[in-house]
Every structure is written in structure tokens, then in C-alpha cells.
TrEMBL record:
PANTHER family: N-ACETYLGLUCOSAMINE-INDUCED PROTEIN 1. This is N-acetylglucosamine-induced protein 1. Pfam families: DUF3605. InterPro entries: DUF3605. It comes from the Eukaryota. GO terms for biological process: N-acetylglucosamine metabolic process. One of its GO terms (cellular component) is cytoplasm.
């Protein structure tokens, strides 16, 4: 299992995580696009996994980051999220998620799951709360419609014809989130042009001021 598995984990390990840590990279099977589609359609998000070596590095990095900054939230607010957001609790420009561009930040995921080549993993951070069901921890129907509309306008339309077949998104249930204090959704894009990826993730002036 390696040294990382013998230490106290920096976040609760799922049964899938424990299984991954028992494998080598050579034994690991990458998630392909069709499998990801099935996972997202059935909301079976707990089976998403990282490559064994990536998971070990992620655990080590998380432990070191928490030791230095006190929490993952603090690290993200210092290094990744817009300076204009200030401190939590945030004061969004709009109470509707993704309605105002200054209320969200699109970034490539630093620690993506283990996907086959050609799949980009993006995280969209939001300073507006995305309502979830308090019982299940999953999104409300209204929230799902709001996010669907945003993904369609921001990602799918940017790709052009056939874009709907190259974009998928999900929001982890509360229990699966490694960073629970900051709202975010995951967007997966297949075979995207690097220039378009750079356009989606560029920092705007309203993120800095």
C-alpha cells in the first residue's frame, strides 16, 4: 500500500480510495468517456477514482497544505480563488449561481481523477451558494437546472456543433466533497482545443480588483 496508506489520511478515505491504494498504476483501469457518462447519469459519483500514484501524491500534498495553511479552504482562497471575493462568508453579486461572471472562477483541476487521454477536468468555483437537499446532500432540482443552463451557455455553445456530446458535469454530494466550505462543480470536456481551455480559465479584471 505504500507509506501514504500507513499514515493517518488527511481526509476520510472511501472504500474506493482504499481499493485504489492497494493497486499499482499498471493495475489501475482509467475511466473512459462512456463509463463517465454512466457514472454521472446514475449519480454513482462515489466510484470516481484517481490513479494510485496520483492519490498518494494528493494525500501527501493535502496533509502538507493543511499543515501549512490550516485548511484547504485557506489555501484555495490565497492561491486559487479571486482576490475580489475577500473572506468567507462571501458576499456574491447575485444570489443566483453563475448569473454574474464575478461570482465564479473556472480553473483546470489540479488533482483530476484518473481519466483516459483527451478528457479535461475543470472545476468551477462559485461564491454564490448552490442549494442542496439537506437530507440527501445532493442538488435540488432547481439547482440542477441552474447549473445545466450555465454549462450549456459557457462550455457547450463555445465548442460549437456537437458540443453537447463533449461536455458533462457533476456536483459531488456533500459527503464526497474534499473541500466542503467552498461551492464548486466539476465539468468534464472531451478533446477540447487548448486555446479554448485557456479562454475558459483566464483570469478577468473583475477577479483581481
Amino acid at each position: 500500500m505504500g507509506d501514504a496508506g500507513a499514515e493517518e489520511p488527511p481526509f476520510p478515505l472511501t472504500e474506493v480510495d482504499k481499493w485504489v491504494l492497494s493497486q499499482t498504476d499498471e493495475e489501475y483501469r482509467y475511466h473512459d468517456w462512456e463509463e463517465l457518462r454512466q457514472i454521472i447519469e446514475t449519480n454513482n459519483l462515489s466510484v470516481l477514482k484517481r490513479k494510485p500514484s496520483d492519490l498518494r501524491r494528493y494525500m501527501k500534498w493535502t496533509a502538507e497544505t493543511k499543515a501549512q495553511y490550516g485548511s484547504m479552504t485557506k489555501y484555495l482562497m490565497v492561491h486559487r480563488l479571486p482576490k475580489s471575493w475577500g473572506a468567507t462568508p462571501f458576499q456574491p453579486a447575485s444570489v443566483i449561481p453563475f448569473q454574474d461572471p464575478s461570482d465564479y472562477r473556472v480553473l483546470v483541476n489540479d488533482w483530476p481523477y484518473g481519466f483516459t487521454q483527451g478528457i479535461s477536468h475543470i472545476v468551477v468555483w462559485s461564491r454564490t451558494i448552490i442549494p442542496t437537499d439537506p437530507e440527501s446532500g445532493d442538488m435540488t432540482p432547481e439547482s440542477r437546472k441552474t447549473v445545466e443552463s450555465f454549462v450549456e451557455s459557457y462550455f457547450v455553445k463555445s465548442i460549437g456543433p456537437g458540443g453537447e456530446h463533449r461536455v458533462m458535469w457533476f456536483k459531488n454530494w456533500v459527503a464526497l466533497q474534499s473541500v466542503r466550505n467552498l461551492e464548486h462543480i466539476h465539468v468534464l470536456v472531451k478533446d477540447v482545443d487548448p486555446a479554448l481551455l485557456a479562454e475558459w480559465t483566464k483570469e478577468e479584471e473583475y477577479h483581481r480588483r
